[in-house]
């Protein structure tokens, strides 16, 4: 059977000579590479699986060599479908908070410490004492806590990089750059666009910190060895990337204040574009800068995981035709997979409310869907209370997005227009980032400014980065 991901795309335009823009999405279980054209149409895609991260207690680790091999494989599959010579720019997104320590040439000296690694409890408690409550660096699985542990374990290392930073560095043949989205949970202040002074009290090695640029800022041309291996033009540009969550948002086409995206997966994740940032650490709400706007969001424990406590995926598919979205059950559920909620209610003991249970499974299933929709509405209302707009246009991605009856039910309960995403794959969001970077360059617009905490230190670090040769250890 042909792999549907790596199979040729219908009606390919590989020979038209039109420009292409590539996005690379690095997930927990695999890598996907997508090419879009200047109009945003997808022209090809390739993928490669990743072995699951290794678990040891609260530690979650993965070899960076696996990431690079998977990226190489996914790009090879993509360029079997489209002409690599047409590529103008590439951008990478990675799992938010995954990082590793490297030497000056970008060679890993540690495994990748994954986004959900919670093995640095002592360092996380230290952060509680010194980091502001509103900092996204707070939390049991804090990337900054992992950096502090890596400093102790690898004192001779030269820097710490996020997953997307390291892959972009491999593509460009130079290391040391990050983006404002990946850097947020490492402690970067997105408002002042600096590495803040409070980090000094923690003993953070500033020479380890990457220089931070806004997503879409050019890092440099593709490394000559890679250009030759894939047939890429030598001037193809590697641009600063983003996190997987923001890339998924960008993929939908949301772009105006009041545009929002809900991800209906195992959990319920909501994001909305705002003219001003919103930070509410008690609810896990933080904001990413997107150009002149801000992307505010949070995640509830409700969602698909709560539904699966009561019905299998097959049972839900069988019950869906019996739903009556225009006839509410009025049961007022708050479905959770287990006690405890983080957003829109912050209560570690918050109970799941799924009673009384009707005798008819279809009515019960509808009440559960209504409950998740009510949590979604409450989540957007909570963000609106804190200063962001309530959604005017809502895009939906994730496993629940294809349920049209649920979409009708949600539209009634949320009271906003439902929009169809341009794309649902995070890799398409990264590709759009690459495309917009080249569009700015073509129009003669200034590139987004690079950010620095201390100008002299960052200029010295940049000179070191440009002078350091990139070492190669995995396939070119």
UniProtKB/TrEMBL annotation:
Keyword tags: Kinase, Transferase
Domain annotation Carbohydrate kinase FGGY N-terminal: ranges: 21-250
Compositional bias segments (type: Basic and acidic residues): 454-469
Alphabetical GO biological process terms: carbohydrate metabolic process
InterPro entries given in the database record: ATPase_NBD, Carb_kinase_FGGY, FGGY_C, FGGY_Carb_Kinase, FGGY_N
Region Disordered, annotated ranges: 41-61, 439-476
Domain Carbohydrate kinase FGGY C-terminal stretches: 261-434
Molecular function GO labels: kinase activity
Annotated Pfam families: FGGY_C, FGGY_N
Family: Belongs to the FGGY kinase family.
Stated name of the protein: Carbohydrate kinase, FGGY
């Amino acid at each position: 059977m042909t792999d549907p991901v790596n199979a040729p795309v219908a009606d390919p335009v590989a020979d038209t000579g039109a420009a292409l823009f590539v996005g690379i999405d690095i997930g927990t279980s695999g890598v996907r590479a997508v090419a879009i054209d200047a109009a945003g149409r997808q022209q090809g895609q390739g993928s490669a699986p990743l072995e699951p991260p290794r678990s040891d207690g609260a530690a979650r680790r993965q070899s960076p060599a696996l990431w690079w091999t998977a990226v190489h494989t996914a790009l090879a599959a993509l360029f079997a479908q489209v002409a690599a010579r047409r590529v103008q720019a590439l951008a990478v997104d990675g799992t938010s908070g995954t990082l590793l320590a490297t030497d000056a040439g970008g060679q890993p000296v540690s495994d990748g410490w994954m986004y959900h690694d919670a093995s640095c409890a002592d360092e996380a408690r230290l952060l509680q004492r010194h980091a502001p409550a509103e900092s996204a660096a707070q939390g049991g699985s804090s990337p900054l806590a992992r950096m502090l542990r890596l400093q102790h374990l690898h004192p001779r290392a030269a820097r710490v990089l996020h997953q997307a930073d390291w892959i972009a560095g491999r593509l460009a043949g130079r290391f040391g750059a990050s983006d404002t989205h990946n850097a947020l949970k490492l402690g970067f202040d997105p408002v002042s666009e600096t590495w803040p002074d409070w980090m000094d009290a923690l003993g953070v090695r500033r020479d380890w910190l990457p220089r931070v640029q806004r997503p879409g800022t050019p890092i440099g041309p593709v490394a000559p060895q890679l250009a030759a291996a894939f047939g890429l033009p030598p001037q193809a540009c590697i641009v600063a990337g983003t996190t997987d969550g923001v890339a998924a948002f960008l993929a939908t086409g949301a772009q105006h204040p009041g545009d929002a995206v809900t991800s209906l997966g195992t959990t319920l994740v909501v994001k909305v574009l705002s003219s001003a940032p919103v930070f509410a650490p008690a609810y896990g709400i933080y904001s990413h800068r997107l150009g002149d706007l801000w992307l505010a969001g949070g995640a509830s424990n409700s969602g698909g995981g709560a539904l699966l406590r009561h019905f299998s995926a097959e049972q839900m598919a069988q019950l869906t035709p019996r739903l009556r979205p225009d006839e509410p059950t009025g049961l007022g559920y708050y479905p959770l997979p287990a006690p405890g909620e983080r957003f829109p209610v912050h209560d570690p003991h918050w109970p799941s409310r799924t009673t009384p249970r009707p005798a008819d499974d279809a009515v019960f299933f509808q009440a559960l869907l209504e409950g998740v929709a009510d949590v979604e509405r409450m989540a957007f209302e909570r963000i609106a209370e804190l200063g962001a707009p309530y959604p005017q246009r809502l895009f939906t991605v994730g496993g629940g997005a294809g349920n049209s009856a649920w979409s009708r039910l949600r539209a009634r309960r949320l009271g906003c227009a439902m929009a169809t995403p341009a794309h649902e794959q995070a890799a398409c969001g990264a590709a759009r980032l690459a495309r917009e970077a080249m569009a700015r360059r073509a129009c003669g617009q200034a590139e987004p400014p690079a950010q620095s905490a201390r100008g002299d230190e960052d200029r010295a670090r940049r000179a070191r980065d440009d002078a350091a040769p990139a070492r190669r250890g995995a396939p070119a």
